[in-house]
Amino acid sequence: MQEMILILDFGSQVTQLIGRRLRELNVYCEIHPYNKIPDIGPNVKGVILSGSPFSVRDEKAPYVNLEGIKGRLPLLGICYGAQFISHHYGGEVNGSIAREYGRAMLTVVDEQSPLFKGVSKTSQVWMSHGDTIAKLPERARIIASTDDVENAAYKIEGEDTYAVQFHPEVYHTKEGPQILSNFALGICGCKGDWTPDSFIDNTVASLRKQLGDDKVILGLSGGVDSTVAAVLLNKAIGQHLTCIFVDNGLLRKNEFEDVLDSYKEMGLNVIGVHSGHLFLEKLKGVTDPEAKRKAIGSTFIEVFDAEAQKIEGARWLAQGTIYPDVIESVSVNGPSCKIKSHHNVGGLPEKMNLKIVEPLRSLFKDEVRRVGRALGIKRELIGRHPFPGPSLGIRILGEVTEEKLAILREADDIFIKGLRNWPCDLPSASYPNEMADNLYDSIWQAGTILLPVKSVGVMGDERSYEYTIALRAVISTDGMTADWVHLPYDFMAKVSNDIINKVKGVNRVCYDISSKPPATIEWE
Ligand code: XMP
Q1: Which of 180, 337, 424, 436 could be stapled to 428 by a disulfide with Cβ–Cβ 3.0 to 4.6 Å?
Q2: What is the C-alpha separation between 303 and 405, in angstroms, rounded?
């Protein structure tokens, strides 16, 4: 069984980062809400308690019973976690002494402590706490301090329990990765052998065991997640997997054909369904953004369901659900109103009486890409920007028509190809620690929007009265917040010229310089 570290989430904004940092050390970990602790098997090598917006002194402060964990397994309390251990094991936490927010200098007091092995005697850490540990719990010993907070890190004698008041998981704690590595690889004794290759081997083996000779259906969207899920399943069960790729008539220029060809090249058993006419029919006269989304969503389910019914004996529906969706839906704060992705074909499994299989549900997005790369999927496919399920349907503001679709497809093609052909020396948006191949690769998501306004221009000697195209390019980590990209001026000049010269029906190009929030990435 895969060894792992269990992270108990008390609701901090940065709990996911603890997971990220451990995964970067090739240590598998899972984040669970403090009030839904899973069974702790022999594969759990250590436990981390996260931070929290609460104070341990609040009446409703999150509480976890550490019996069976503390003293038995290595335990690391971070921020609230550190205060929690103190508060419940004989120490004292109060709100009246030193508060610290932001950078602080940490001095290691116990240089022999395994938690600080290889860490500088003084180094910058990130603090974010209102309460302070005024008195340490029983048998505890200070191992590091800051100027304002004496009990910045402590260890409980006789057991592998450590606690740090600062956040080792955030970027501003300069030697945080070393501290987490000391805990996971040193104190917990993890091997650090969780790599894309080991993930593939383990997942393929467990999919074979889980699915046996059963037939599985999967909806491909052209996106990274469903593609990687399909290739993994194909490796596990081959032709027992049938993929359905729906052309909703709202895809980008040549997208359906190109992506379908790539799928076939990869040996996937894939059915391409042309049903653009049906979607356009349903969209006729619909202008409200939500009504458009609903029309597209329900038509997709209709088409998918009809195709899936043709596959006799199918027992499973595979989905490309990834870890942030899983954490999101079971988080301490409950599911948020985040828009779920298109391949999450809501309602279908119950309707068709299918069981769900989600081979990527333990991975973060860039891990999905790494696994995709290890599976040999082309870089163009795994490095593709996110694309919304309702496709260009929500990038044509107002009613969707064939004419507008044709204009938008051409403009979009010029923008996207332009990004792909423009060299740059920025980091890759898909692989945080690598350089981008080109401008496209450095951007998280880009697209074009057709505005429902016409404006006056002049072409040659003639007055024109045509549509406006808006360009959008953002950087983000998860789509929840986003910043507009400072595209090079000469690139924007070229794209604008190309679009206005080559796309009939457009005489003006704008660039969207709004961040999210308060704007959203899509315009509808
Ligand atoms: P917004 O516009 O909410 O978008 O800032 C955030 C991210 O979600 C994508 N998006 C969708 N994806 N179905 C999807 O599969 C949808 O209905 C949908 N709406 C927005 C958007 O492209 C961006 O990546």
Answers
A1: 436
A2: 21
CA angle 329, 332, 333 (to 5 degrees): 75
**Does 129 participate in catalysis according to the annotation?**
no
Atom number in ligand 1 closest to CA 445: 24
pLDDT digits (tens, 9 = 90+) for 6-37: 999 999 988 989 999 999 999 999 999 999 99
- Name the catalytic one among 87, 167, 240, 385: 167
Calculate mean pLDDT across residues 491-506.
Answer: 98
Angle subtended by helix axes 323-330 and 15-24, to nearest 10? 150
Burial (CB < 10 A; 0-12, 13-18, 19+), residue 456, is exposed
d(CA 403, CA 159): 70
Asked if residues 161 and 141 have their Cβ atoms less than 8 Å apart, the reply is: no
- Does residue 518 have a cis peptide bond before it, meaning omega lies within 30 degrees of 0? yes
- Which of ligand 1's atoms lies nearest the C-alpha of 342? 15
Q: pLDDT (tens digit, 9 = 90+) per residue, 454-487?
A: 999 998 889 999 999 999 999 998 788 899 999 9
Tell me the CA–centroid distance for residue 36 and ligand 1, in Å.
29
CA 256 to each of CA 249, 393, 407, 450: distance values in angstroms, whole numbers, following the listed order:
9, 15, 17, 21
- Statement: residue 425 has pLDDT above 90: yes
Give ligand 1 pocket residues (Cβ under 6 A). 293, 339, 341-342, 386, 388-390, 445, 479, 516, 520-522
H-only helix segments in 331-377: 348-352, 365-374
Q: CB 124: neighbour CB atoms within 10 A?
A: 15
157 part of the active site: no
Q: In b/e form, how buried is each residue of 36-54, taking b as 16+ CB within 10 angstroms?
A: ebeeeeeebbbbbbbbbeb
- Can you tell me which atom of ligand 1 is nearest the CA of 385? 24
State if pTM tops 0.70.
yes
